[in-house]
Amino acid sequence: MAETGEGTAVSAADRAHAELRELLLRFALLPKQKLNEVALAERLNTSRTPLREALNRLVAEGLLEKGTRGFSVPDLRVDVVTDLFEARLELECAIVRLACERATEAGLEALAGFLDESIAETPDASVDRLIELDIGFHDTLARLAGNAVMRGMLANLNDRIHLVRWIAMDGRRAGTQSQHRDILARVRARDAVGAMALMREHILHRNDGIVAAIRAAYGHVHMLGAR
Amino acid sequence: MAETGEGTAVSAADRAHAELRELLLRFALLPKQKLNEVALAERLNTSRTPLREALNRLVAEGLLEKGTRGFSVPDLRVDVVTDLFEARLELECAIVRLACERATEAGLEALAGFLDESIAETPDASVDRLIELDIGFHDTLARLAGNAVMRGMLANLNDRIHLVRWIAMDGRRAGTQSQHRDILARVRARDAVGAMALMREHILHRNDGIVAAIRAAYGHVHMLGAR
DNA sequence: GTATTCCGCTTTGTATACAGAAAGTGATGC
DNA sequence: GCATCACTTTCTGTATACAAAGCGGAATAC
């Protein structure tokens, strides 16, 4: 068991899990790629046992798949991605509605501050940073909605759509933060119906051209693969 | 790798996962119980390695928790259970709305048949069977809604609330199937608003007295523990 | 009698070994 | 040149070994 600086022990399996997740979110592991445990264990500087424990967790989280033998990165299938985005839409609408009911004024004030910073940062931000800011806004809304389970479900969906979202965000820098601002205004007004409509528009706007985004994602990962 | 009769290999880890899940759903593993891997491996007739792989999956699925050392069954905490039921409510409402849009006539016809059988069976059914029928109805709706991701999310929530649901169902045999009938009628009429309102009523009806159900669940598991 | 310490045993996280399955490679036949 | 086969190597699922951490009981001190 490795020790962190704060005296909290982090197991090798936990570390492998976190590092694998990073590899997935950075597209260092590509769709349909079959994972080689020996190489991966070496890469992550651990033995196969904690690595396999981490791989099993990621399978349960939907980030990896398990065949009869071995683990692999899921293919980018249109039907699955479509389902993921739709699930996200439904969950986000529920979350924003609950946030209208439950968010504290202090919480909304802090979110407005975050939004100001996001807007200031957007013109020069990398795509990774844009996504971070996007997720930050939505995750804060989820926290303000006061349902930890739903917040966790949203986080999982975010991981699973990360690549497609990255591509879509790259192609479309404009508008996200102003849409966030509009949504926040509705939440502050405790206008659930309005907030949900804007959230739906915001996410459907993103959903447009999922097939195109997936095709672009394939182009992107093939480019990565050629690296 | 064990062979099933149909030539599909089932790994020891897969088997352990399924058996552990069964133990959890049957309350053979109790809230807050610390798991002993050696005893459990012996009980499941496997070695610790595939057992730990299964345990890790169950942690990722929210059915178990992992401390700095070892695995345990989550405590029945009111806030978590409340969140789980609320998440289920939101998800089920989204599902029933999508089912209104997407369900085929044949699919709805089959569900009506299932409902007839469920109603016929209810007076003499065990609680386990009642829950199976309840879950069967909702899962079929989820299938008819045509979003596999959301169906999977619902299945996971169902696992996580199983014990509390069991208690609540035991205390309240009446009304479920007639409520299912009403919901199905709204879906057949493609009345999303009506269907969602009934679904909300159906689940909130269940949610009433979650604290009481959790207390009763504790009584139940203490009785089990004394076995 | 109670609190503390020590020691032996057990448990857990991880590394390594092993066996079977799968993949790769080279030789042979057509 | 291509297909097939046999052999070798590699990979994967699992069992086992090992070291560290934790627990429980006995001994000791007050």
From TrEMBL, chains A, B:
Keyword Nucleotide-binding tagged: no
InterPro entries: GntR_C, TF_FadR/GntR_C, Tscrpt_reg_HTH_GntR, WH-like_DNA-bd_sf, WH_DNA-bd_sf
Domain HTH gntR-type: 10-76
Entry's Gene Ontology molecular function annotations: DNA binding; DNA-binding transcription factor activity
Record key words, sorted: DNA-binding, Transcription, Transcription regulation
One Pfam family this sequence matches: GntR
Name of protein: Transcriptional regulator, GntR family
Organism in which the protein naturally occurs: Salipiger thiooxidans
